[in-house]
UniProtKB/TrEMBL annotation:
Protein name as annotated: T9SS type A sorting domain-containing protein
Lineage of the species this protein comes from: Bacteria, Pseudomonadati, Bacteroidota, Flavobacteriia, Flavobacteriales
InterPro entries: Secre_tail
Domain named Secretion system C-terminal sorting: residues: 201-272
Signal peptide: 1-29
UniProt KW keywords: Signal
């Protein structure tokens, strides 16, 4: 091993050691009702946790900055271990009540101009506590981190015992990079909130899988429907102001998230197919 690699290796060892120390030094933070985190203002590069009431369990996640203009995000980086894993943990939440949607952008990071062909997996779940008695409860299956950014949106079932949402990253190879950004936990508009919002759905629930969307949007909008685990199952388009019918006969019965996006506007609602 040459001198440059030796210095680099020592830097990573010291960095991971510092993260392990920080992992057990949870700061006292008040529970929050919502999240809207793009990691602006976090320490970079190699910003260790805890920061701003966010926590890491494990030694492979830090905050980083890349791009022009620079963008800050949380980065999973497995430098040396064949089977490395870590959790990125949100601040404590006031409630996980099935009335909020959880969303985030996730993507691979280029290494020397290319994507490492090996797989990084991620799983979304919850923690009841962050002390030594903590138990991770998965709410999704393990999914592969995509090369390009993908937004995942989901509603987490109500559970009064769960206090934190966490994303578990794992890889079976070294030199693996993944980024996560724009993490949000915000209220989902229900059927009683139509007057306050820019689109409404009728009927909801629907029995025959046909719905009508009324909107006061002044431009075309994308319509995407997701399962509660974040899988996109429908893509369509609204033509603008007025009513538009959607045939969802290809979807199974269940609860979904319908998301309407145009320009800087984005809004989601629950949709129930019976």
């Amino acid at each position: 091993m040459n001198l440059t690699n030796t210095i680099r290796m020592k830097k990573y060892i010291l960095f991971y050691a510092a993260l392990l120390v920080g992992m057990v030094s949870y700061s006292q933070c008040d529970p929050v009702a919502t999240l809207d985190e793009d990691f602006s203002g976090f320490n970079v590069p190699f910003g260790g946790f805890p920061q701003n009431c966010w926590t890491v369990i494990g030694a492979f996640i830090h905050t980083e900055e890349r791009g022009t203009p620079p963008n800050q995000y949380a980065q999973f980086y497995n430098a040396m271990m064949q089977n490395g894993s870590s959790y990125l943990v949100t601040p404590e939440l006031i409630s996980i009540d099935a009335q909020h949607q959880f969303s985030f952008d996730i993507f691979k990071i280029l290494t020397n101009g290319i994507f490492n062909p090996n797989i990084i997996l991620f799983t979304v779940g919850t923690f009841n506590t962050l002390d030594n008695t903590r138990v991770f409860t998965p709410i999704t299956s393990s999914m592969v981190v995509p090369n390009e950014p993908v937004t995942h949106t989901m509603i987490i079932d109500a559970d009064v015992d769960q206090k934190y949402i966490a994303i578990l990253f794992s890889s079976n190879s070294t030199q693996m990079f993944a980024g996560i950004d724009n993490i949000k936990y915000d209220a989902v508009a229900g059927t009683k909130d139509f007057a306050k919002t820019s689109f409404s759905i009728y009927p909801n629930p629907t029995i025959d899988r046909n719905i009508t969307i009324n909107s006061n949007l002044d431009s075309k909008a994308d319509v995407n429907i997701y399962t509660l685990t974040g899988m996109k199952v429908y893509t369509g388009e609204l033509n603008g102001t007025g009513a538009q019918n959607l045939n969802l006969s290809s979807l199974s019965a269940g609860m979904y998230i319908i998301k309407v996006t145009t320009g800087s506007f984005s809004e989601s609602k629950k949709l129930v197919l019976q």
